[in-house]
Amino acid sequence: MESEVLGVDSGVITVAHELKAPLCLLRQFALSLEFERDISKVSERMVATSERALRQVNDLVKVARLADALFEMEPVNPRRVCDEVIVELDSLFRFNRRSVRVDYRNRERLVVGNRDLLYSVIYNFCLNAMNYGGEELPSEVFVRDVRGGGVRVGVRDFGPAIPAKTWREIKDGFVKKPTEIAMRPGSSGLGLYIAAKFIGHMRGRFGLVRHRDGTSFYVDLLPSRQMSLL
Asked: For 209, phi and psi rounded to 5 degrees?
């Protein structure tokens, strides 16, 4: 019982820490306004920071409402979802002197999923990847077919090794609670927790590949062979 309480507490602490970070950043921006020559740039950063924080809060609300039958499964184009995420995060990547590339190799064009949930999954994967690499080592968003007829959608980064505990949790198909990821400063344990919940709802498979120079986080989804009516 004690370990369960401690587990809950650590999850709450992680959530509080991650939600506190953008508030501290907004405060820093606000205090620096009077010293800035180009207020418009600071204003743009404040809006972007607040939007990311709001998205994280909205994702937590979605996690709590997954059982309410609000997120139905439908045919989804994973390439289009990835492209939309990259467009939204483009300014953030450029501001942090990071870059991202795509590698689309899938023949199965549609997957069974939920567009909003898949968007959040890829969004969180990209935010994690943004902390690592750079212009010469861009993060990679990929979509490819896998054996057995599935479609793999994920993000490859060049960060430090993933701890064995986190790897085992993801390998087993779930992340029990939001947890800070050791050896990966800036990584969002909350983001991976949200992604795990959304992937489970879409009946996908959450996985990762540990490379010698980074990690690929991915979701495997079933293809949708529903014919489009033109």
From this structure: -120, 125
**pLDDT tens string 60-93:** 889 888 988 889 999 999 999 999 999 999 888 8
Token pair in block for residue 115: 């567009």
How many structural domains does the chain have?
2
What's the pTM?
A: 0.80
**CB count in 10 Å sphere of residue 196:** 23
Instruction: Identify whether residues 78 and 119 lie together within a single domain.
Output: yes
**Within a domain: residue 229?**
no
Q: Are residues 54 and 78 in the same domain?
A: no
Report d(CA 19, CA 215) in Å as an integer.
25
Tokens of 212: 């010698």
Q: What number of other Cβ atoms are within 10 A of residue 216's Cβ?
A: 18
Final residue of a domain: which of 24, 45, 66?
Answer: 66
Question: Could you tell me if residue 227 is inside a domain?
Answer: no
139-145 vs 100-104, strand pairing mode:
parallel
Both tokens of 230, joined, read 């033109």
Q: Is 147 exposed, middle or buried (0-12, 13-18, 19+ CB in 10 A)?
A: exposed
Residue 57 burial (CB count, 10 A): 12
Range(s) of the domain holding residue 210: 73-221
CA-to-CA distance for 84 and 39, rounded, in angstroms? 28
Can you name the residues that pair with 227 across neighbouring β-strands?
A: none
